[in-house]
Amino acid sequence: MSRYDEAHANPQGPGDARPTALQIIKDEGAEGTLKGQVIVITGVSAGIGIETARALATTGAKLFLTIRNLEKAQNALKGVFDPSTMELVKMDNASLASVREAANAILAKTSKIHLLVENSRTLFGTNHLSHFLFFKLLEPTLLAAATPELPSRVVVLSSSAHNVHGLNVSDNYDFQKGGYEPNVAYGQSKTANIYMANEIERRYGSKNLHATSLHPGIINTELIRHLPKEALEGFKAVYPLMKSIEQGAATTVWAAVGKQWKDKGGKYLANCQEIGLIKSDEEKFISNGYAPHAYDVEEAKRLWRDSLKMVGLPAED
Predict the structure, then answer these.
(1) 174 Cβ partners below 8 Å, 6+ apart?
(2) Least C-beta-crowded within 10 Å: which of 6, 58, 70, 88?
(3) How far apart are CA 100 and CA 91, in angstroms?
(4) From 45, 152, 158, 189, the catalytic residue
(5) How far is residue 93's CA from residue 189's CA, in Å, rounded to a whole number?
(6) Is residue 315 a part of any domain in this protein?
(7) Does residue 156 fall inside a structural domain?
(8) Residues 257-292 as b or e (16 or more Cβ within 10 Å = b)
(9) Residue 284 annotated among the catalytic residues of the structure
(10) Catalytic, out of 173, 186, 268, 290
(11) Does the annotation mark 190 as catalytic?
């Protein structure tokens, strides 16, 4: 059970009683609690990435924010960016070389990272592989910061779209053998996000590094971009479920600072709570439930092994 169950029981659309990211910070008593710590947030050029940064900045931590377009990010971050506590790092998720450069730029300035938040994109390569490589490059610093008193955390944004499809076979992640279908590709990338978080927890949880994945909710830009035509035709029915951008960042911040996740992970979250299995009659793109394949340990292990190969890193036990 979550303290926010009642607020989510009868949604009325953006700006209703559901919590915002800043409310989570206040409710968790997180203001000023991470002074001297380092937080890295990817994809901070618009939307919930900015709101996540705005909220987590109140913890007192130093923030490294990865962005694709410097000018766009500076305009979007007006009123949020504070050069004394935040630093922008250019990173293009479509290029693994750019991911390496961004990681190296951060590693040149810090040897410890308390929290990594990876905002997701849409395709397997730009979404999963870039995030996987970025985590692996920052992994030593996340472990270096991790203690029993203050474990490190990784928060990976997934989506309800993971319900649509699991993983392709190992030699067809990018549909090299054909059969490309947008919803399947999108669903696969979101399943990969969940598997990455689950496998981080399995591998590093005993070392005080924990990871969770989450569905931020249906937010205007996400809805328009990714929901299928038939879902858009039912827009009036979907509208009450939609969240404002400030509300859309709430579950991310809950996973990042919530006391409930201090010593555990490997769970899929939505609406500031741990979520149960999707019901058979629910629409997959708007359900908060998780798919039956979401906690498939062997599939998560396979993805980890394959991802190491695809980004050019050595095999692991």
Answers:
(1) 124, 125
(2) 6
(3) 9
(4) 158
(5) 14
(6) no
(7) yes
(8) bbebbeeebbbbbbbbbbbeebeeeebbbbbbbbbe
(9) no
(10) 186
(11) yes
291 DSSP assignment: P
Asked if residue 19 is part of any domain, the answer here is yes
Residue pointed to by tokens 């929290």: 115
pTM of the model: 0.95
Q: Quick check: is 207 catalytic? A: no
Beta-carbon contacts of 251 under 8 Å, excluding residues fewer than 6 positions away, are 214, 215, 216, 217, 269, 270, 271, 272
Q: Which two tokens mark 49?
A: 């990435």
The tokens for 36 are: 């001297």
Among 45, 120, 152, 190, the active-site one is 190
Decide: helix, strand or coil at residue 189. Answer: helix
Q: Please count the structural domains in the chain.
A: 1
What is the domain range of residue 221? Answer: 5-310
CB 51 within 8 A of CB 76: no
Q: What is the pLDDT of residue 316?
A: 96
Contacts of 10 (CB under 8 A, 6+ apart): none
What is the Cα 274 distance to its own chain's centre?
Answer: 15
Q: Indicate the burial class of 109 (C-beta count within 10 angstroms; 0-12, 13-18, 19 or more).
A: exposed
Report the half-sphere exposure of 211 (CA within 13 A, side-chain side).
27
Is 317 a member of any domain? no
Q: 64 has which bridge partners? A: 40, 87
**Mean pLDDT across 221-248:** 72
Q: What is the pLDDT of residues 70-122, one digit of tens each?
A: 888 888 888 888 999 999 999 998 899 999 999 999 999 999 999 999 997 76
The one-letter amino acid at 42: T
